[in-house]
Structures are given as structure tokens and as C-alpha cells.
Amino acid sequence: MNHRIYEDWLFDYLDPAGTMLEEQQSADLKRHLQTCPQCQDLSAALRKVEGELRRVPQAQPEPGFTMRWQARLQAEQALRHRRQSMAGLAFGVGIAFLLFGSLVILVLPWLAAPQVLFWTWLYRFFTLASYVDVLRDLLSPLLQAAVGALPVAGWVLAVGLVCELSVLWLVSFRLATNPRKV
Amino acid sequence: MQDNQVLWLEKALQGDSQAFTWLVETYQRPVYNLCYRMLGNAEDAEDAAQETFLRAYKNLRRYDANRSFSTWLLSIAAHYCIDQMRRRRYQVVSVEDLPYADLPDPAPGVENSLRRKEEQRSVRALLESLEPTDRAAVVMYYWYDCSYQEIAEALSLTLSAVKSRLHRARRTMAVSWQEQPAAQPGETLLAERIVS
Fold it and tell me: What is the ipTM of this complex?
């Protein structure tokens, strides 16, 4: 005999949230259970299991669970903060090494002939000075016109606005980067 | 959910950490119980429950306020425990080797204590016969009276998958119960009650 169909009906029959059996199916199941010891045993075992599961109360943790959780959260946050600091430090050191290495590679050939280096940098310095001179000649009339165009109060307002925006940026940055505390 | 819990949840969502601590206080027992039933011992359950609340705290912004908060917490706990059980799959531990007297015993008296321990051992043996996801579904169904829909949402399953998993779990546990020598006598009497 195929018991599987009766077993399925049995599970549905005993499960209040499961599929409702039709009247005919319930009647067939009851008839089958009266004659089949195997399914009788299964249904009895199932009832026992369900009773056992529903009887056992919820397990509860040892007292002080919340305090232990707070301590764990703080430890986790400290660890994450330390890891972030270490990562930042490692990144900085890496960049410093990279720059230092590049500098060494650039400077090494010049060390062989220092007088060439001296004259090259002297030439560059004077070239740069001449550029600055030309730039000053170009910008000074523009700056004079700009200063004249805006009243003193306007400049005070503009500088004040820039200062306020800087403070706002600093505060937002701190709020966004500071970890939450418990 | 009670009004004050809704308030704490709203405050916690706004970044109030003290409010989240109240939620930990409130939900510690159901979360711990799920972890305990899943993992089978108090030490692992404590660790898993703590980790559940940590994950919930970190991901609080992802919580959908239209869903039940307790179901969301149980979902995190269940997924974490399932992962833990899969990780230790190859570490074969017999139920006899696990300490079963590791829960604080609220019932005084030797007889009560022994009976409770025997119940805990028996339930643990039943749950141990199930695979992790089935075990989570059984715990949510029998201890928290979760509906099939809630279990499906918590375990990321379809409704039919939940039904078939519970079906299979019941069959497995019933067979496991039948194999226990002490469970045999008197069982047919219960079957007769269904028939009548």
C-alpha cells in the first residue's frame, strides 16, 4: 500500500496553518488510520514531537546580556577605528616612500655633476621670476579695477561668507566621519 | 509591537544608540532562544545573539519599517546561525558530547531540574536531525508562531518552499522520535485521539 499520500494528508491535517483537507480526504485518512499501524505510529510520533516542541520554554541568556553587548560594540568600534588609523598610516607611509624613491631616482644622476644642477636651477629660478613679473604687470590693473568695483562692505560680506562655508564644511565632515557611540 | 518599542525603534533609526540598547534588552530572549535552538549550546548561542544585534545595529538603515522588527531580527539571527552550522558541518559532534546543562535553570528542585534537562536534551536531539534551514523554519514556527509568510520572508524562501521544508522536517522528527526506544509505548493511544 502507498502510505505516502496518507502521510501527506496527516501532516496537513495536524497543521492548522497548512492546506485544509477536503471532507472526503479527511474521511479517507481516518479510515486508513484505523487499519494501518504504521501510520498510527507516525501520527502518534508526530503529535508527541509537536507537544514536546511546544512545551519547552524559550531559552534565556545569562543576566547582563545587554551590558555584554554594549562592551562588545565598543570593542568592535575601537577595533574598526584602530584599523582605519593603521590603514591611513600605511597609506601615508607608502606615499612618502614612493615620493622619496622618485626623488632619489631624479637626484641620483645630478649628484654625479653638481655644478650642472646648480646652473640649471639658477636658470629656472630666474625664468620663473621673469614669468611672475610679467604676470604681475598683467594682473595689477585688473585687481585695481576689481577692488574699486566692490565696496568695502561687499568684501567683508564675501570674506564672511567664505568663512561660514568653511566652518559648515568642517562640522559636516566631523559629523559624517565620527563613529556613533553607545 | 508596543508603543514604546515603536518609539525606541524610531529613535534608533534617527541614530539614538540608547534607544537601540532598549531594543536589545527587549528582544534578547527571542533572539537568544533561536540561536540556542539552532546551535545547540549556550556559548555559541550567546556569541550568535550578540553578533545578531551588532549586525542589526550596523544595518539599521536598511530595515524596512513596514516589516516586523522582530521578524527582521530573527531573520538576521537565522541566517547567521545557518552560516555557522554550515561552517562546522565537517566537525562531527554527537549530541551526547554536547553539554546540555548549560542553560540557567529557572525551576528549583531536583525533579524539576532533571525533567527540564531531559526535555531540553530530547528537543535538541530532534532539532539536530534537521538540516540548518529546516531547523530555522521549525524554531520560528513552533516557538514564535510565525506564519508561513513570515518564515518565508525571514529565510528568503518562497511560501511553497517553507511548506515543503516544514513538511519534511516534521516527517524527519517523527521518524527520529520513533527510533528513540523510550518513545514507543503508548503512541498508538494518541493516534486514536486523532481518529476519534
Answer: 0.74
